[in-house]
Amino acid sequence: MAGWGAAEEEENEGKHIRSAATPVTFAGTVGLFTPAVASSCNTAVLFLSPWGFEEMCVRKFWRILAEDLADIGISSLRFDYAGTGDALDITEEGDGLTPWQETALAAAVKLRALSGCEHLILVSQGLGGTIAATLAEHLPSIDGIAFLAPVISGRAYLRELTVWSKMIDESMGLPEAQRQTEGVTVASLRMPDSAADAVKKLNLMTLGRLATPNCLVLARPGRPGDADFARHLETLGADVEQSAYDGYDDLVSNPTIAVMPTAAGRKIVAWVQSIATQPGTAASADLASPLAEPLIGDGFHETPLRFGKGNRLFGILCEPEGARAGATALLLTTAYDRHAGWGRMSVTMARALARDGIASLRFDTANVGDSPPLSGAPEQVLYSREQHRDVEEALDLLEQRNLLPAYVVGRCSGGYLAFQAALREARCRGLITVNPYSFHWDESRSVDEALRFAPRSLETYGRKLLQMETLKRLFGGQIDAKSAILNMATGLGRRVARAGRRLLGAFPLFAAAQGPVLGGFRTLAKRGVDMSLIYSAHDIGLDHLHDQFGENGAGLKYFPDIRLTIIPEADHNLTPPYARKVYLREVREMGLRLGSR
User: Fold this and answer.
1) Is the backbone peptide bond immediately before 213 cis, with ω within 30 degrees of 0?
2) Model-level pTM?
3) pLDDT at 58
4) In the chain, what percentage of residues exceed pLDDT 90?
5) Where are the beta strands (DSSP E) in 419-475?
């Protein structure tokens, strides 16, 4: 899928710039409207997302599909359900799936007003398929529903989420005692209890009526129930096209290393095109204007917006309802996680900061989440110089809105980007970096390989090896033993080298005086940049910190203004609530400190 040819396109130094989708707000949530390049049919597409971790993985895929549909003349809208993503939180629980169904109904009404199209096609994945089937009962002119990896049995789905949750926690090295096991929780996202109760009762095989004439079912490999569901839809009188969901497992395994299912995307676009209604006359020109009024919450208001050259980047500006009391936090994304953050961490942080008078901007860098790629840039954008331009344009936006001074905040690869941005941008008055794998990237290294075989600290490897379950998986061939051994050997080698330097009286601060990392910290210190380094106690990033500053970071005494915080018993993603409180406290204090200067 090219994902190319947007409604707004410019030339910039010989490169095409594709605009991000147009943000709109309605029913307490944020939507992204992608208009057709040329109005050629009377049908628009409404995307109905899966829930939780699966939604994070699908986010970029939805954007690419929306762009490809626009290129063939079909408008679309994607949005967040109530209480998820960038939507306002649900104040009262106990309504099952009703809040999500009501958000979807409002989205359908909004899409018809924006596109001028009477007919809709629903493209759903996972739990979104249940929402789609219900929505079709309440709306006329639903020409088709695409069910991608549908949730057929609610009970089976909840059991699957339990397994999924444990696998994700294990991949992060999270000890059993720190896992969040209350209710239905996956990747730090908890499904409302009433919604989980409603999901438990779902069974699409008992569906007695389907208010649409066309269906597409993309069946997951090894899931015969998906094919059974397709046959059931045929008994309801629908014209059903069934195909394999090629690439499903690679899509939903991890947002950081997710591979876009190109073949499946082509099937979806071709199917939509085959059933889209072609009008005898052009669609109505009396269309609603896309409008993104701020969402008003407890002590904050949030405005979704596009910015940068050609409006190529998408983000959310969160501002206090009252007077500003601090500098503006620029919250950078981690890897390919959407701007809402892992477990909505960036959303909850932004709103908490606003209640203390601190504004923030969270946004997707190019080719992450809802921001399209920049033509000519590498497909792999992590640790790429291209991302520096994205941060520069985010700072331009803050400057235009009189929201400086600013400070950059990032975790993992976002922490690396924050460090590099602070070096390049005098407008960055502060820096908070959390569990950065590295401060300097050797461009001869393969980013893809590093992400796929990400190492852990020696302490983590040692703890895991003592667990019976790890040994079973190791001998069962479920763990890449070669990569694990290589990573452990590398970690041991670094520690031996550090011990050798210490015995010889050599201190890495002086031995590597001209190195890019220490040189960078000196530059920041001379500029008076407020700096805070936060690490989980056994994070692999600490090994890299010790390489630069000596065992236990002893060399940091030469940088007395840098604050080093070590959070005990926390994972790389700061899953435990107390770890997030430490993180928020540091971000809040820096914002207030910089704002008072």
Assistant:
1) no
2) 0.88
3) 97
4) 70
5) 428-434
Give the separation between CA 509 and CA 55, rounded to whole angstroms. Answer: 44
Q: What are the tens digits of pLDDT across the range 367-414?
A: 999 999 988 888 899 999 999 999 999 999 999 999 999 999 999 999
Q: How far is CA 541 from CA 336, 492, 548, in A?
A: 19, 14, 11
Query: Quick check: do 22-275 and 295-450+512-595 share a fold?
Result: yes
Asked if 124 and 245 touch (Cβ cutoff 8 Å), the reply is no
Mean pLDDT over 359-369 rounds to 97
Residue 456 one-letter amino acid:
R
Residue showing tokens 């206090």: 320
| 20 within 8 A of 314, measured Cβ to Cβ | yes
CA of 148: how far to CAs of 75, 132, 212, 219, 249, in Å? 20, 11, 16, 7, 12
The helix/strand/coil state of 89 is: coil
Q: Helix, strand or coil for residue 391? A: helix
Instruction: Report phi then psi at 190, rounded to 5.
Output: -110, 130
Write out the CATH class of domain 22-275.
Answer: alpha beta
* Arithmetic mean of pLDDT, 118-139: 97
Using the structure block, give the residue that is written with the tokens 């049919």.
41
Fold for domain 295-450+512-595? Rossmann fold (3.40.50)
Domain range list for the chain = 22-275, 295-450+512-595
**Joined tokens for residue 327:** 């500098």
Q: What's the 3-state SS for 302-323?
A: EEEEEECHHHCEEEEEEEECCC
Instruction: Write out the two tokens for 168.
Output: 């994700």
DSSP 255-289: TTT----HHHHHHHHHHHHHH----SSPPPS-PPP
Confidence band of 446 (pLDDT split at 50, 70, 90): confident
Burial pattern 169-200, b for ≥16 Cβ within 10 A else e, equals bbebbbbeebbbeeebbbbbbbbbebbbebbe
CB 362 within 8 A of CB 319: no
Q: Minimal CA–CA distance to 128: which of 229, 70, 58? A: 58
In the chain, count of helices (H) and strands (E)? Answer: 19, 21
Q: Taking the CA of residue 440 as centre, how many other CA atoms within 13 Å lie in the half-sphere pointing to its CB?
A: 13
Cα end-to-end distance, the chain, whole Å: 49
Task: Give the span between the Cα atoms of 241 and 239, in whole angstroms.
Answer: 7
Tokens representing 237 are: 């009188």
